[in-house]
Amino acid sequence: MRIAFLGLGHMGLPMARNLAAAGHDVVGYDVFAGARDAAAAAGLRVAGSGPDAVRSASAEIVITMFQSGAQVHGAYRGIDGADGLLEAAAPGTLFVDCSTIAVDEARAAHELAVAAGHRALDAPVSGGVVGAENATLAFMVGGTDEDFELARPILEAMGRRVVHCGAAGLGQAAKVCNNMILAVSQIAVAEAFVLGERLGLSHQALFDVASNASGQCWALTTNCPVPGPVPTSPANRDFQPGFAGALMNKDLGLAEQAVASTGVEARMGMLARDIYRRYAEGDGAGRDFSGIIETIRDAG
Ligand code: NAD
């Protein structure tokens, strides 16, 4: 298919490369010159602006991979009188936003696209930069059945698991709910290991029991916050991410917005939100989020 890919950062560039490698006709663009140069050096066709990428690709699909909802809305509409992606695209183009943004922002992006005569999906990802490079991302998708089926082969070229979560915005809803579970469970596992240490329990003994009992979860069996039991976990490499504290903090900010707008009583989730905000404001922004165990150990 003919694809314009906007946002060639840590995630976007390897995703765009995988689409090109799968035989799609991809034209990319990033506002940051360094990202454009890296994309050109990787063999990608690069345009001089977002709308140019859409036009020169004669794009059937426009994929965005930005940091925020404001960036998505700005690029769709155009900023300071410049034309936007929506105006540059032929009628009926499918807009697929893979950025992690708020549920309400995703719904507003859908409305902008549809009002301009286009189609739209929200398709945030999990799996990080390694997943983007190896085409093993998980996509959580919101939008109509028809649009989902059109995008499915494109998403499958960049990922291993593609789940249609429901209507517009529900891809982002799934992402925010999953990451709230993850934050709470990573803190719970870290607290249990610190408690075990104080009680004289070895890390391996606690792991051997909990990983085969009802405490079993991803935060324990894949992202174990102490070195040893899971040799590939970030704790074995001084908490190099992995999934950085800054990204967990961002995602919990989106969870907080969703909790506020729905009125749900999410006391554990919002406590995790506070704990990770402080972690990211300290030295945790660039460290794996499982490094929260050090904060807990130091505080006791
Ligand atoms: P990044 O900052 O490396 O990349 C975003 C890119 O978008 C930047 O290069 C920026 O210059 C570009 N950009 C912004 N506005 C633009 C515009 N109007 N036109 C063209 N380019 C524009 O961020 P990233 O790490 O690649 O993350 C992208 C998204 O994926 C974020 O929403 C993030 O939360 C989400 N995400 C990231 C990870 C991860 O591990 N990095 C994992 C899951 C989800």
UniProtKB/TrEMBL annotation:
<dbReference type="GO" id="GO:0008442">
    <property type="term" value="F:3-hydroxyisobutyrate dehydrogenase activity"/>
</dbReference>
<dbReference type="InterPro" id="IPR013328">
    <property type="entry name" value="6PGD_dom2"/>
</dbReference>
<dbReference type="InterPro" id="IPR015815">
    <property type="entry name" value="HIBADH-related"/>
</dbReference>
<keyword id="KW-0560">Oxidoreductase</keyword>
<dbReference type="InterPro" id="IPR011548">
    <property type="entry name" value="HIBADH"/>
</dbReference>
<feature type="domain" description="6-phosphogluconate dehydrogenase NADP-binding">
    <location>
        <begin position="2"/>
        <end position="166"/>
    </location>
</feature>
<dbReference type="InterPro" id="IPR002204">
    <property type="entry name" value="3-OH-isobutyrate_DH-rel_CS"/>
</dbReference>
<dbReference type="Pfam" id="PF03446">
    <property type="entry name" value="NAD_binding_2"/>
</dbReference>
<dbReference type="InterPro" id="IPR036291">
    <property type="entry name" value="NAD(P)-bd_dom_sf"/>
</dbReference>
<feature type="domain" description="3-hydroxyisobutyrate dehydrogenase-like NAD-binding">
    <location>
        <begin position="169"/>
        <end position="295"/>
    </location>
</feature>
<keyword id="KW-0520">NAD</keyword>
<comment type="similarity">
    <text>Belongs to the HIBADH-related family.</text>
</comment>
<dbReference type="Pfam" id="PF14833">
    <property type="entry name" value="NAD_binding_11"/>
</dbReference>
<dbReference type="InterPro" id="IPR006115">
    <property type="entry name" value="6PGDH_NADP-bd"/>
</dbReference>
<dbReference type="InterPro" id="IPR008927">
    <property type="entry name" value="6-PGluconate_DH-like_C_sf"/>
</dbReference>
<keyword id="KW-0101">Branched-chain amino acid catabolism</keyword>
<protein>
    <recommendedName>
        <fullName>3-hydroxyisobutyrate dehydrogenase</fullName>
        <ecNumber>1.1.1.31</ecNumber>
    </recommendedName>
</protein>
<comment type="pathway">
    <text>Amino-acid degradation; L-valine degradation.</text>
</comment>
<dbReference type="InterPro" id="IPR029154">
    <property type="entry name" value="HIBADH-like_NADP-bd"/>
</dbReference>
